[in-house]
Write a structure and sequence with these properties.
With 245 residues, the protein is an alpha/beta fold. Helices cover 40% and strands 17% of the residues. The protein is built from eleven helices and ten strands. It has a four-stranded parallel β-sheet with strand order 1-2-3-8, sandwiched between helices. It has a three-stranded mixed β-sheet with strand order 4-7-9. The chain is globular, with a radius of gyration of 19 Å.
Length: 245
């Protein structure tokens, strides 16, 4: 995605472009912004009707500067702002935290007493999405590009407390699971230092701003009302990913 001529060649003949970049591949906001802008420029150059950009909230603005290190969010928001200036229809897919993270990164683990423990670093409501539902959110935009030009689709199934997740795990698996709170430093000891640094700089995004900000629930309600195919619930996701333990 760093080669502009290859982007134009790849997008040639497209009427719609869905674009998503991976901040964690290089760990660089500058690289992600350049890649995102490059894709958008290529979409314009080939005459695509619409670009759908996978964006995220601008956390620095949303928090009035209180959280200024969420580079993986702000970089996507910067590309979104750029796309809005281009002569092309656009819409924006804003995904929540992935349910898939619960299958590895946050999966309950056995402690020294052989108890299953779900250890989290947040205590408030967090929106979650089964990321394989992405197409369900994109279909309405593709069917009505004029209607959704400039709109943001807040993509989640619902907001969940950590305790909500535990209760569903217990119901589906029949296992007893304990909930535990840990500091980010303690929980993230095994993470790459650069990833832990970004997460530390993003602390408070869930507990203070519920990830999507103060309008998150309202925006999610609007998004869900546009969809014909409802997104996967946490319970259905847990059932579909058995066995867990």
């Amino acid at each position: 995605m760093d080669d502009q001529p290859s982007l134009s060649a790849a997008l040639a003949g497209s009427s719609a472009v869905f674009a998503m970049t991976n901040f964690w591949e290089k760990g660089s906001a500058e690289v992600e912004v350049a890649q995102g802008k490059g894709i958008a420029d290529a979409a314009v150059a080939v005459g695509a009707e619409i670009i759908i950009w996978s964006s995220l909230p601008n956390v620095t603005e949303m928090s009035n500067g209180k959280i200024s290190g969420a580079k993986h969010c702000d970089s996507k928001a910067e590309v979104e702002a750029y796309i809005r200036t281009l002569p092309i229809k656009s819409a924006f897919f804003i995904p929540a935290g992935y349910m898939q993270m619960m299958t590895h990164m946050f999966k309950p683990k056995l402690n020294d007493e052989d108890e299953l423990v779900f250890t989290v670093t947040w205590s408030g409501y967090c929106p979650l999405i089964d990321i394989t539902d992405t197409g369900k959110f994109i279909v309405p935009i593709l069917l009505s590009p004029d209607k959704y030009h400039g709109k943001r689709f807040t993509a989640a199934t619902a907001y969940y407390l950590p305790a909500d997740l535990v209760e569903v795990w217990k119901k589906v698996t029949g296992k007893e699971i304990k909930l535990s709170q840990a500091s980010l430093e303690a929980w993230g000891q095994s993470l790459p230092p650069e990833l832990l640094s970004v997460l530390k700089d993003s602390a408070g995004l869930v507990d203070e701003y519920q990830y999507f900000g103060p309008r998150g629930q309202e925006d999610l309600n609007w998004t869900l009302a546009q969809m014909d195919d409802p997104p996967t619930t946490w319970e259905k996701f847990v059932e579909a990913n058995e066995p867990w333990f």
